[in-house]
Structures are given as structure tokens and as C-alpha cells.
Amino acid sequence: MADTVLITGASQGIGKATTLLFARQGYDIILAARQIDRLEAVASEVRSLGREAIAISTDVRYPEQVNNLVEKAIAHFGHIDVLINNAGIFTLGPVEEFLLSDWQQVIDQYGSVSDE
Ligand SMILES: NC(=O)c1ccc[n+]([C@@H]2O[C@H](COP(=O)([O-])OP(=O)(O)OC[C@H]3O[C@@H](n4cnc5c(N)ncnc54)[C@H](OP(=O)(O)O)[C@@H]3O)[C@@H](O)[C@H]2O)c1
């Protein structure tokens, strides 16, 4: 039985690169991000490398969606050996120009708040 890795933000960027690296190293992959079409495209790339992959649409800001992700991963593979907690966003620009809502989007579980 192959080891598994659960990677959030697996549909592009660092998460996609990490996904393909683990697949080449012989891991089966649980891929998570919000946009399922892009996630499925990466899952197909994993399968073309000879590894098993499942793509699960998940918004990590919502605990119930994260619980669903873990439950589906365990139901499919029986175990999660590695977690890459990569999903996230960051804000670019002069820090003094950031709004409170910019910070909240980066760090808060439930998205933005009012700037008032
Ligand atoms: N690249 C850099 O220079 C840099 C620098 C510092 C820190 N980081 C951090 O490193 C991580 C990856 O960076 P990156 O440049 O590869 O990012 P990226 O290209 O913007 O990709 C972000 C990934 O996270 C997913 N994602 C975003 N919000 C999500 C949410 N709420 N729930 C689930 N998935 C979510 C996106 O897919 P969906 O939109 O479909 O959900 C996408 O797969 C991020 O956490 C970023 O903040 C990156």
C-alpha cells in the first residue's frame, strides 16, 4: 500500500508542483482546492504518472468542509501519511495601504469583515 499525501491548494503554483513531486516519489494524492475543474486536471496528471489521486472541492476557511475532506480521504485510502497545508492567499503592496479586510482575507477563517 502506497503512502498518501493530502495537499491543499493543489490546483496550481507551489501546491501543484508539490503534488507532482510527491506523485513522482510514489505517493498517492488527495488534492484539495475550491475550483474542482482545475483540481481534476492536476489529478489526471497524477494518474498519468501511475499514482492514484482523488480531487475534493474544499474551502479551507470552513471547518465542516475540512472535516468532509479528511473523512473522504480516509474513506478512500484508509490513511493520510503526510499533510501539506499549503492553501492560502497573500496580499502584495505597501503595507500601509492595506485595508482591514485585506488582512482578514489572508488570516481569518471565515473571510472578510467590514472596513468600518
Ligand atoms: N508564491 C509566493 O511567492 C509565496 C510567498 C509567500 C507565501 N506563499 C504562500 O504559499 C502558498 C502557495 O502559494 P502559491 O503562490 O502557489 O499560490 P497560488 O498559485 O495562488 O495557489 C493557491 C492555491 O490555493 C488554493 N486556495 C486558495 N484559497 C483557498 C481556500 N480558501 N480553500 C482551499 N484552497 C484555496 C487555490 O485554488 P482555488 O482558488 O481553486 O481554491 C490554489 O490551488 C499560499 O498559502 C501562499 O500564501 C507564497
TrEMBL record:
Ranges annotated as spanning the membrane: none
Keyword Oxidoreductase appears in the UniProt entry: yes
Pfam family membership, one: adh_short
Keywords: Oxidoreductase
Span of the signal peptide: none
SUPFAM superfamilies to which the protein is assigned, alphabetical: NAD(P)-binding Rossmann-fold domains (SSF51735)
Domain of life according to the entry: Bacteria
Family per similarity comment: Belongs to the short-chain dehydrogenases/reductases (SDR) family.
Name of this protein: SDR family oxidoreductase
Organism: Funiculus sociatus GB2-A5
